[in-house]
Structure formats: structure tokens, C-alpha cells
Design goal:
This protein has 260 residues and is an alpha/beta fold. It has 10 helices and 10 strands. Helix 4 packs across helix 5. It binds acetoacetyl-coenzyme A.
Length: 260
């Protein structure tokens, strides 16, 4: 499928989405939203894809936010429709039944930071710069920035970042709990591929169950969440991958999981 604003590479069981508007620091315009919807749908429906990586083209930006040029003539209703669509897209990414890794290769601002936070695991280059600077435009984050940020780093620290619009470096973002790992810029994709290699050989149905247990259980009271986890645990025992995993352990060989 030909895209204008992104590239979708399928390399075996790995899908890589490259945000590709480097001249605009990969700002997310309406075309990119539509193309991300298509790419994510394609990845979701392709059983051969087991892991997804999202990154930006160039060495400056992951994504510097929503495309501000499109805001100039945007009515309040258009703005509402736009962010609802962006929120649905980021939810869809968060809910993909496969691990999604963000490889943050530069600026992750506004909508770029929101996209990053919808990913399961975030590796960043030491040159990455992260923030929610919408306040400087007289608006607020609309792609989940006030919500996921507060859930990830706590209300007080989220308020400080969103109210000041301050852009912070990768080390500080890591210390706040926004990133899993910070690596030298030239090692980012090497490290991300190592992680992807580890994840592609895991049992796909167990991977899906992990994401559901953590995502759905997170907002439940502990007792209900534990009951939910217990049911998903039991469901794994209905899979061929459970038989394979347990047999492989007992036979002292690596397992081969097929997602059945
Ligand atoms: N939208 C549209 N264009 C953008 C952009 C954005 N979010 N961010 C950068 N660009 C464009 C610049 O206009 C510039 O284009 P031209 O070369 O045509 O002038 C090009 O990308 C390079 O950017 P700069 O020259 O500004 O590069 P810099 O290194 O001097 O500064 C920066 C980098 C600090 C990231 C600066 O570009 C910047 O502040 N960008 C805006 C960041 C921002 O406010 N993001 C939030 C957007 S709102 C949002 O995301 C809402 C939401 O929650 C969904």
C-alpha cells in the first residue's frame, strides 16, 4: 500500500511504521492520521506480524505533535472531531494484540508524546526531547496527554509538564518513568531490534492476554482485577502454545509458539 506520510515495512514478523514528514518534524496531519489508521488496521489483521515498532524518519523527530498549520482554520467542532479520531487511533494502538515499541529518535512533543505513551514499551535516543507544549499555543493536549501522562508519572508531575509546556531531555523523561530505556542515538534501532527479536518468539495468545490483563485490569479494583487475571490465566490453558511451552520446558528445548 502506498502512503504519503508514512512508510510501513514488514520484515518477517516485525512491522515497522516510519512517520515520514521529516521537513515538518513528522508532525501528525490529517493525512497521516488516516494512513496510520490504515496501517494499524493492516497490522492488526495480519497474523504474521507479531511485533510493531513505531519511529520517525530522520534524526530530529519522532513526531513534533499535531500539525499546527491545520489548526489555523479549525473550528471547535472540527477540533473535537480531530481529537476524537486521534484518541481512537491511539487507543487502537494501545489495544493492538501485539507489543508495540516506540523508538523515539528525537522530538516527541504534543501528539508525538501522546502517540509514544500509547505504545507498550518506549526506547529513546539520548538526544530525544519530550513534552506537551500545547499550553504555549493557548490550547491543551487532546490526544490523551493529560490522561496517560498523569497515569504514567502521577498527577503532580503531569500538571507541572503540561502547565509549563517544558520540553525535557531523555534522561529526565526516563527518571520520571516515561521511558523504558535511553540509548546512544546510533544504537537506538539496534537495541529496539534486539527487544523485538525477544518479543517475536513469545506465545502470541499469551502476549495478547498480558496486554488485556494489564490494560483492562489497571483501572479495576484489585479484587476484580485479580479475578480477571485468573480467567485469562485459565484461558491460556486452552491453547496449543501452553502445551508446547510446558513440553518444551520439560524436554529442555526452546519452544516454538504458533499462536494456537
Ligand atoms: N506542526 C507543523 N509544523 C511543525 C511542527 C508542528 N507541530 N513542528 C515543527 N514544524 C515545522 C516547522 O514549522 C518548520 O517548518 P519550516 O521549515 O517550513 O519553517 C520545521 O518543522 C522545522 O521546525 P523548526 O524550524 O521549528 O525546528 P527547530 O529545531 O527550530 O525547533 C521544535 C524544533 C522545538 C520542535 C519546534 O519546531 C516546535 O516547537 N514545534 C512545535 C511543537 C508543538 O507545539 N507541538 C504540539 C502541537 S499541538 C498538539 O500536538 C495537540 C495534540 O495534543 C494533539
Amino acid at each position: 500500500m502506498g502512503f504519503q506520510t508514512l512508510e510501513l515495512r514488514i520484515e518477517g514478523s516485525l512491522a515497522i511504521i516510519l512517520l515520514n514528514r521529516p521537513k515538518a518534524l513528522n508532525a501528525i496531519n490529517l493525512t497521516m492520521v488516516g494512513e496510520l489508521e490504515q496501517a494499524v488496521g493492516q497490522i492488526r489483521d495480519d497474523p504474521g506480524v507479531r511485533v510493531v515498532v513505531i519511529t520517525g524518519v530522520g534524526d530530529k523527530a519522532f513526531a513534533a505533535g499535531a500539525d499546527i498549520t491545520e489548526f489555523k482554520a479549525m473550528s471547535p467542532i472540527d477540533a473535537w472531531i480531530f481529537v476524537q479520531r486521534l484518541q481512537r487511533l491511539f487507543l487502537e494502538i494501545e489495544r493492538l494484540p501485539k507489543p508495540v515499541i516506540a523508538a523515539v529518535n528525537g522530538y516527541a512533543l504534543g501528539g508525538g508524546c501522546e502517540l509514544m505513551m500509547a505504545c507498550d514499551i518506549v526506547y529513546a535516543s539520548d538526544a530525544a526531547r519530550i513534552g506537551q507544549p500545547e499550553i504555549n499555543l493557548g490550547i491543551i493536549p487532546g490526544g490523551g496527554g493529560t490522561q496517560r501522562l498523569a497515569r504514567l508519572i502521577g498527577k503532580q508531575r503531569a500538571k507541572e509538564l503540561v502547565l509549563t509546556g517544558e520540553i525535557i531531555g531523555a534522561r529526565e523523561a526516563w527518571s520520571l518513568g516515561l521511558l523504558n530505556k535511553v540509548v546512544p542515538a546510533d544504537q537506538l534501532m539496534v537495541e529496539v531490534r534486539k527487544l523485538a527479536d525477544k518479543l517475536t518468539i513469545k506465545a502470541p495468545l499469551a502476549v495478547k492476554a498480558v496486554k488485556e490483563a494489564i490494560e483492562d485490569g489497571y483501572d479495576m479494583a484489585l479484587e476484580r482485577a485479580l479475578a480477571y487475571e485468573g480467567k485469562l490465566f485459565a484461558l491460556c490453558f486452552a491453547t496449543e502454545d501452553r502445551t508446547e511451552g510446558v513440553n518444551a520446558f520439560l524436554e529442555k528445548r526452546p519452544p516454538t509458539f504458533e499462536g494456537k
